[in-house]
Amino acid sequence: MSTAHSRFDEIIVDDSPAPQALRAKNRTPLPLIPLHRLWRRTIDQVEICRVALPVRNLPQGLRGLTACQISDFHLDRAEDLARLDRVVEAINRQRPDLIFLTGDYFSDAEAMRRHLGGFRERVADLKASLGVFAVAGNHDHWASFALIEQALRAAGVRVLANESVRLTLPGGDLKIVGIDDLWSKRAEPSRAFREVAADDCTIVLAHNPDTAAYLNAFNVGVMLSGHTHGGVVRIPFYGSPLRSILRIGKQYYAGLNRYNEFYIYTNRGLGTFWLRIRLNCRPEIAHFSLSEPQPSGAVAPVNRPERLRRSRRRRARQI
Length: 319
Description:
By secondary structure, this protein is an alpha/beta fold. It is built from seven helices and 14 strands. Helix 7 links the parallel strand 8 and strand 9.
């Protein structure tokens, strides 16, 4: 069961007309326009979820440090790039200290070849005072992560593949640990943690939440993942009816959950794959404020959902 550390702050809605080229390519029959608009809202209304993120060994001076996470872009169509446009703008308005990208940027090699340039341009627009960090997902390796990594690095992103980087900050040190993708059999936790000391505070990036099953011997402060798309369909009080693709259980499909001694946050992602649907499972920007974990047995504070605000955004750039 997901813990109640998050609240919904805003829904990003693009009510501007689509670019002319996109409208011509994806012309919808007149009688189906209302249904098409409803469907697009289910996959395009991106939710900003504000989360008090419990991090083990967090130095007191780093409490309140902010970070944003986005995942599972699946940039397969021009409309996916337009959604990413709005997401980048929304993240930059948050002025985060850190930004984390947790994989599956494209679904396949064809989509990657078609949209790699647009992906690089938009990611380059992300602004974080302490940097942008990324790991690979399974689809990235099935496409060509060598090219994706090149684009990420050209955009100023630090790519972590079974490695870590130390941030020395006025309030204390923070280690960002990136573990490569589990399904692609490239995850090497021991290699990723080889320069991590026992008392280091770590934020672990790993696309697949199942990576947690291999981390019990390591010093995990908190783990950020994606991969599941939130379960795609979510039923109130039940969660996703879809059969679990996770070894650790479908309770880790979305949101903040405790796993043994540390927490996992599973991002619902931005895009869709195969079935282009979402039900009660909006795309997500996670906005974190780093905090200490609650003492064992303590009742977590409840952040009640705020009234969702709809805001118009400028027209997406021409694609």
